[in-house]
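Chapter review: from sequence to fold.
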Amino acid sequence: MYKRQLQGLVALAAAPAFGTWFDRSESVRGARNFTVAVGVVALAAVLGALRRPFDSDAANAAATYGALGLWGLLLSAQGIFTDSVLASSAARGPERQFAFVAKSTLWRLGNVAGQAANLVFFAVAGDDWALGGLRKIMAVGGVLCLSVALLAAVRDPPPEEPDLSRPLLPGTGAAAPPRVPWYRRPSLIILGAVVLRVIGKGATMRYIPVRFADGFGLKPTTLTAIVLAAQVLRVGAPLACDALARAVGRAPTMVLVRLLEPAALAALALSGDVRVSGGAFLCYLGVPVGTRAIEKAVLMDHTAKKSRGRWNAVESVNRGTWAGSAAIGAFLVHDYGYGAAFLVSAAFTGASVVVLSGLLVALRGERA
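The C-alpha cell string follows.
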C-alpha cells in the first residue's frame, strides 16, 4: 500500500510544475522530449525491479520504490501532455468531446487485450496467485508500455479559432472567460466532484477483488473473467455516453451515469449473493467511466488554452487522493469489515454526484 502511495504522491508533487511549464512553453517540443525520456527510464526501472537484481531485501525494496516513483512521474507528464495537446488540436464542443471519447475507447481496447492475455496466461500457466507468474505478466506489460516513445512524433497543434460568442481579450485574440460565480464554474464543479469520487473509490477499489476471493472463494480465472467483461463494457461506454449526451445533454448524462457508482457500492455492501455482487462489480467497473471523456471535454471547453496544462495537472489529484484514501479503506476494512467500508465509499461517491449535479445549471442548454 505504501509503495502505491509513493507513486500517487510523486504524481501529485510533479504535476503542477510540469503543467505550468507546459502552459508557458511556446512549443510542445520540450515537454514532449521530457515525457518520452521519463517513459523510457521509468519502464527500464520497472523491468529492473521485477527481476529483483539485488541480494538484500532492502536494496530490492529501494529499487521497487524508485521504479514506482518514476512511474508516478511518467503518469503525470504523459497525462498532462496528451490531454493538453489533444484539447488544443480539436475544436470546442462536439469535435473535442469526440476526440476524448476516441482516446478513451482506444485506451479501453488496450485494457481488454491485456485482460484477455492475463486470462490466457492463468489458463496455461496455472490458476493460482504464484508470484513468479505475476512478475512475468507485469514484465510483458512493461515492455508493451514502451509505446510511450510514439509521443516523439507529436508536433505543435494549429492555432485555435477564438470563440466568437464571447468578447475578445484586448491584444490577445482569445475569448474572455464568462463572468459567473465560482460555484457555477464547470471547472470547479468537476474538480469538487472528482475529489469526492476518488476518495470514495480509492478507499475500497483494491479490496473488492479481495472480498470476492476471501468471501466467495473465486479463483483467479473467474475474477479475471469478470474484470475482462467489465473492460469490454468500458470500451463501448464512452461511445454510448457520447450518443446519450448528444441526445439529452452533457450534464444530465454525467449525473445519471455516475449514479451507478453509489448504487453498485451499496449493493456490494449489503448483498451476500455472489451473483448480485458480481453484477454490481461489473456495472461499477464497466459503465460510469464512460462519462470521463465528457468531463474532460467540458473542462477543456471552459478553460483557456494557456491554463490547460495546469488544469490537466489537477488529474494528479486523482492519483494522490486515490493513494491517500487507500489508507482510509484499510482502516475501515480492518476495524469494521467490508460492508461498512463499501457503505462509506457509497456515501462519498453519492456526495460526488450531488456536487456534479451543479452542472445541470452551469451547462443549461448546452449539448454535445
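Two observations follow directly from the output. DSSP finds 16 helices and no strands in the chain. The mean pLDDT is 84.
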